[in-house]
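Hey, resending since the last one bounced:
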Amino acid sequence: MKRVLLLSHTTGYQLRAFNDAAERLGVEIVFATDRCHRLDDPWQDRAIAVRFHDVASSLRAIVDRARRTPVNGVMAVGDRPVVLAACAAEALELPWHDPEGALASTDKRRARRAFASAGLPSPAFQIHHLADLLDAGADRLGRAVPFPVVLKPLGLSGSRGVIRADDVEECQAAIWRIRALLARSEIRSARTGLEDEILIEEYIDGDEFALEGVLTYGALQAFAIFDKPDPLAGPFFEETIYATPSRLDHEQQLAIAEAVRAGATALGLLHGPVHAEMRVTRGGRIYLLEIAARPIGGLCSRVLRFSDGSSLEEVLIRHAIGDDVTHLGRESAGAAVMMIPIPRRGLFKGVSGEDAARAVAGVTEVHITAKPDQLLEQLPEAGSYLGFIVARGSSATRAEASVRAAHAKLQFDIAREIGVMSRA
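The C-alpha cells again:
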C-alpha cells in the first residue's frame, strides 16, 4: 500500500475528504497535525504531533516516523503547514515545493517582491511594523503608495484583517482596527513571526478570479478558473461565490494560466497543488494577489469534479504518489460554490430552511459548519464562514443562480452577545 504524508491543522475541514479519497484509492494517509505531543493519540488517528512554528523538532518527528513507516508523497492543507511539508519532502527526498518557495507563498512581503522582480504586474507597496505605524501616524509615513490603498496583515490569510482605505483618516482607522485583531491571543499563539507587520499596497480596480491547479516539476496543469461574480471593492473583501467555467474568453484564460505559471516559478514553487488569486483590470492586465502552495480551502473543493468522476482530493493524492494525472480534466458542466457569509455578529443558535435549500434545482450539497453557540464575526475580524452551498448546472450562470436561490431559503438564528458586567 502506498502512503501520503498529510500535514494539516487538527480542525481543517478537508481532513475527512482526503481520508475518504485515500480509502477509495487504496492509499494510506499518515497525518501530521498540530496537537499536544504529551497526549497519547487523543484523536485515535495515529497522527504525528507537530508544531508548525517549530520546524526543526517537527521535522525530526516526521523523519523518525518515516523510517518506520515510509511514505510515497507529501500533501499540505492550509497555509501554515506548507513550509513544514516542503521541509519534510526535502528531507525524505520526495518531490514537492521547495522550502523557500513554500515560505514565499505564505509571506505577502516575499511574494510581492518575487513577482515584481520577475517583471510581473505588481501594485506599489510598502511594509511597515505595526508599532511604527501607530507612532508615526498614517499621515506622516512618507508613503510612495497612492490612495486608495489596501492594508493586509502579513501573518493572516483568507481576507482576514484586509481593509481598503481611501484617505489618511480611513487608513489610520484601519491601522487601529488591525492592531486590535492582531492582539488577540489565538493570533499571537500561532507564532508566525509576522504578527506585527502590515503590507500597505495600491488598490487595483478590477474583477477577481481564482485558478486551481497542480504543478508537475514546474509545468502547470490548470484544473479550473473561477469567476468571483460578487464585487470585491472593499472596504472589506468577503469572498462569497466561485463559479466555473469562467466567462473569460479562451485567450484571457490562457493568459491567466501563464501568469500563474510565471508567478509560481518566481516564488520557487515546483511540484504539487497551487491555488492562485488574481485581479484582472478592464484593460486585461493581470495582477497576481497570491499563489498558495496548497489546494483550495474549506469545503470549496466539492465544486470540482473530474471527467472520470474523481474528486479534487483523489486527483491530488494520485499526483502525490507519482501517478500521471495530465489526462484528467474538470467535468464540462457548470458549477458554483457559495461560502455562506455571516450577516451580523452574534452567537449562532441554529438554522432553518435547509431542506428547502437542498430542494432547489441544481443544488447538490448544503453544509452548515458553524457550531451551536459559536461566536460569529464579520470581516475583517472573521476567520470562518457559516457553511457552504454547492450546485451544478448546464452553465456556470445556472449554477450560480442555484446557490443564490438556496441561500435565500436559509434563515439563521444569531443571538446578541451577552455582555460581561464589571463591578463599579
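Residues 128 and 198 are 5 Å apart (CA to CA).

Sorry for the duplicate.
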